[in-house]
Amino acid sequence: MRTESTSSSQIENLTVGARLLALAELDQSNSDNARVVVANVRAMEAALALADKLDEDAILAMQAELLSRRRGWEEHAGSYRDGLVWVGSTSVSPRGAQHIAPQAEQVPEAMADLVRFMHRDDLPVLVQAAVAHAQFETIHPFGDGNGRTGRAVVHAILKAKGVVTHTTAPVSAGLLIQTEEYFDALGAFRDGDARPIVERFTAASRFAASSGSGLVDDLAGQVDASRQSMKGLRRQASAWKVLPCLVAQPVINARFLADHLGMNDMTAQRALGQLTEAGVLEERTGLRRNRVWQHAGILRVLDAYAQRLRRG
After folding, report:
1. Which residue in 71, 70, 69, 44 sits closest to 58, CA to CA?
2. For residue 67, with 0-12 CB atoms within 10 Å meaning exposed, 13-18 middle and 19 or more buried, which class applies?
3. Whole-structure pTM value
4. Within the chain, which residues score under 70 in pLDDT?
5. pLDDT in tens, 281-300
6. For residue 121, what are the contacts with CB-CB under 8 A and spacing of at least 6?
7. Cα separation of 107 and 217, whole Å?
8. What is the DSSP letter of 101?
9. Which residues pair with 291 in a beta bridge?
């Protein structure tokens, strides 16, 4: 999910490394980009949680998660835009813009029509997701966050239709490596040709399946290596409860263990000590307070995957 969220944000020129993103999850980062990507993760979580009731309220909830933590945009979170928006040109005037979205008063009806389309069951799911996404971007229902919300909607559709069940395929990673083709396909859709956007989503999905499988294998390898390093620990040791969490959150602190695993401070510190002694975690701050521990191997895997995803 974080790989998908990072890739979706990078399409919008918002780049952040795995460690900074993990630190932002702990409220330990001053990076604005990292906070924005964390908000994208929250939007993705909302998309998957609301997939079974994919309606306008669900879409509004996704966008609310995306913007509610962005300074200056709180009042726009979870509501349709009330003014004209356009893509390209300048922020001053739509003159010469690549796309001018429908008037604000047309957005609710257009979105209701889109939701009806998403609930159809007579189309191949990937075709339906691609067309729904392109129509969403054409409507551009929000003042900000349309691209990232629109890509989160794709995952809600894929889950609602049963294409994915237990994981999030990084489809945006496939779109990222050919960003210009993706934008061109959206333009072609607005001109009446849906074929390019379906082809782009097909190619991106193949990339997500193949590269995502490799990423899963590499992360599983890091977990297996950590298990080997922990062989000397008794099976009841609290460190074993922490290990599975490190794939999703490779940088942790005692508060994270308290919030997510219900550990008291003494148990959390013991677990962190056990994992550090086993060589699974390392403490990088050198501080007496506000200390964080990281799994260097998992961070390397995530950053190596991101390095292969060049914005094309």
Report:
1. 44
2. buried
3. 0.89
4. 69-74, 89, 311-312
5. 999 887 777 899 999 999 99
6. 161
7. 43
8. P
9. none
